[in-house]
Amino acid sequence: MVSQATHKINLCSQGIALKSLFTGYLVVVAIGYLMAIVQIQFTHGMADGELGLSIDDIVYSYYGNRSGSVLEAKLNGSMKLNTSEENRLKIINWVHKGAGEQSFNNMGIRTIMDESCVMCHNGSSGLPIPDFTKFENVAKRAETDEGATFSSLARVSHIHLFGISFIFMFVGLIFSLAAGVPKYLKATVIVMPYVFLILDISSWWLTKLNPNFAWLVIIGGGAMALSFAFMWVVSMYEMWIMPRLRSDYRDALLDE
User: Fold this and answer.
1) Torsion angle of alpha carbons 47, 117, 69, 92, nearest 10°?
2) Domain end point (choices 141, 176, 193)
3) Is residue 56 part of a domain?
C-alpha cells in the first residue's frame, strides 16, 4: 500500500518554487487579458461612438456601417477625440460632398490631416494603419464602410489562433494539476477555450457576411473569458489557500 507521505502530483502539494513559477505566469497572463479587454474597448468598443462594447460595435467593425464611410465611422467612433469637434465636422462635411481632391485642399482638410492625423497615419510609423500623407489613401477611406476586409480578417485570425491557443495550453496545463475538480468538469473547462476560440473567430467571418451573426462574437469571447477566470481562480486557490486548510494526497494526473 502506498503511504500517504508519498508525494502526489497536484497543485496543493507542490514546492514553493514551482508554485511561484505558475503564479507568476498566471498573474502576467491575467494582466495581459485585462489589457486586451481595455484595447477592445478603445477599438471595437467605440465603433458606434459610445464607450462600451455593443452589438452595433461588432456589426460596424466587421460588417461595416454601410450607410456611411469608414472615415466618417472612425471620426464618430474610436478617432472622435483625436481632433476638435469643428475639424471633425469639416472632414465629415467634405466626405458628404464627394471627397474630391480639389476640395480636400480648398476646404482645409489637408491641413487638418497634417495637424491631427499624420503623426500616426504615415508610412514610417510602423503601425498597421493607412498612410494619410497620400490623398488616395484618404479618399479610399471616404468610400462606403464595408467593415473589415477579408485580408485583415485572415491576418488577425491566424495571429489569434496561434497566440491564444498557446496561452490556454499553459493555463490548462497548470489547471490540469488541480485535484479538487471532478475529472469531466476539468476536461470540459480545459477544452472550452479552444472550442469557443474557433467559434469566436468564425463569427468574425460570418458577421462580415451577415450582421445577424454578431451575437456569436460576444458568446465566443464571453465563454473564453469565463473558462479562463475559472481555471485561474481554482489554480490559485489550490496552490495558496488549500494548503493552509488541509493536505491533499490525490494525484491529479491520474484523476484520483
Assistant:
1) 100
2) 141
3) no
- In this structure, the answer to whether residues 231 and 170 fall within a common structural domain is yes
Q: Which residues contact 67 (CB under 8 A, 6 or more apart)?
A: none
Task: Give the end of a domain, one of 122, 141, 160.
Answer: 141
Cell of 50: 459610445
Return the C-alpha cell found at 124: 514610417
If you search the block for the grid coordinates 493552509, which residue do you land on?
244
Helix axes 85-96, 109-116, angle to 10 degrees: 130
Matching residue, cell 469637434? 85
Print the domain residue range for 30.
16-43+148-254
Number of domains in the chain: 2
Cell numbers found for residue 231: 481555471
Instruction: Indicate if 197 and 72 belong to the same structural domain.
Output: no
**Is there a single domain that holds both residue 135 and residue 166?**
no
pLDDT in tens, the chain (256 residues): 444 456 578 999 999 999 999 999 999 999 999 999 998 988 887 776 677 888 999 998 999 888 788 888 888 877 888 889 999 999 989 988 888 999 999 999 999 999 999 999 998 888 878 899 999 999 988 888 888 999 999 999 999 999 999 999 999 999 999 999 999 999 999 999 999 999 999 999 999 999 999 999 999 999 999 999 999 999 999 999 999 998 888 888 887 7
- Please give the biggest Cα pair distance in the chain: 90
DSSP H helical segments within 118-182, as ranges?
A: 135-141, 150-175
Contact 220, 203 (CB under 8 A): yes
